[in-house]
Design brief:
Mean pLDDT of chain A: 92
Low-confidence stretches of chain A: none
Largest sheet of chain A: 6 strands, mixed
Largest sheet of chain B: 7 strands, mixed
Order of helices and strands of chain A: EEEEEEEEEEEE
Distance between the termini of chain B: 37 Å
Mean pLDDT of chain B: 92
Number of helices of chain A: 0
Number of strands of chain B: 11
Low-confidence stretches of chain B: none
Radius of gyration of chain B: 13 Å
Number of strands of chain A: 12
Oligomer: heterodimer
Strand content of chain B: over 45%
Chain lengths: 112, 113
């Protein structure tokens, strides 16, 4: 079946530190990959996506590259801010709009 | 443009009762999906509706059901509530032509006592 594995955290960083959250997946077929972010008391927001191998998704300073050979989609940011504190979910979708599969989420806390 | 609206935001029920949650998608979105979020199980897919038809279903018991109306609004019903049904229930909608991007509401937090 389809599944997503990501580091569960919590991850605690100082402001301006470098962030990496690892995400790997298994999928039947050719998935699209996503990172969603959930701020306290809110629903999930799409952060970035990639739909084919070697695509790089980017938004708000965050980046992730679709690596088919390692079945990975690691999230990175060069310099985190306190406002980046949230839970980050890696997800995949094999068919258009069908059966999104989410990872367990990684809680990030950024300290001033 | 209004986002996905879920009502109510909070609910408290007792075991054995039933509950109905509502979701209004973004205008123009015809696909609505429901998810259950718990600390132990994370985000789990419940079902997806498109044009009033259930198009996909997750691995949940028959106590969990849903429907979609002609205006794309959707409701989710849980009957005979159990303590384990306590969770954040999230609704997401998507455009007909770009169904890979799901837009989420803030959720309904259900507590079963």
């Amino acid at each position: 079946g389809n599944s997503v594995t990501q580091m569960e955290g919590p991850v605690t960083l100082s402001e301006e530190a470098f962030l990496t959250i690892n995400c790997t997946y298994t999928a039947t077929g050719y998935p699209s990959l996503f990172w969603y972010v959930q701020y306290p008391g809110e629903g999930l927001q799409l952060l970035l996506k990639a739909t084919k191998a070697d695509d790089k998704g980017s938004n708000k300073g965050f980046e992730a590259t679709y690596r088919k050979e390692t079945t990975s989609f690691h999230l990175e940011k060069g310099s985190v801010q306190v406002s980046d504190s949230a839970v980050y979910f890696c997800a995949l979708s094999v068919r258009r709009g069908q059966n999104f599969v989410f990872g367990p989420g990684t809680r990030l806390s950024v300290l001033p | 443009k209004a986002g996905v609206t879920q009502t109510p935001r909070y609910l408290i029920k007792t075991r054995g009762q039933q509950v109905t949650l509502s979701c209004s998608p973004i205008s123009g979105h015809r696909s609505v999906s429901w998810y259950q979020q718990t600390p132990g199980q994370g985000l789990q897919f419940l079902f997806e509706y498109f044009s009033e038809t259930q198009r996909n279903k997750g691995n949940f018991p028959g106590r969990f059901s849903g429907r979609q109306f002609s205006n794309s609004r959707s409701e989710m019903n849980v009957s005979t509530l159990e303590l384990g049904d306590s969770a954040l229930y999230l609704c997401a909608s998507s455009l007909p032509g770009d169904q890979n991007i799901q837009y989420f509401g803030a959720g309904t937090r259900l507590s079963v006592l």
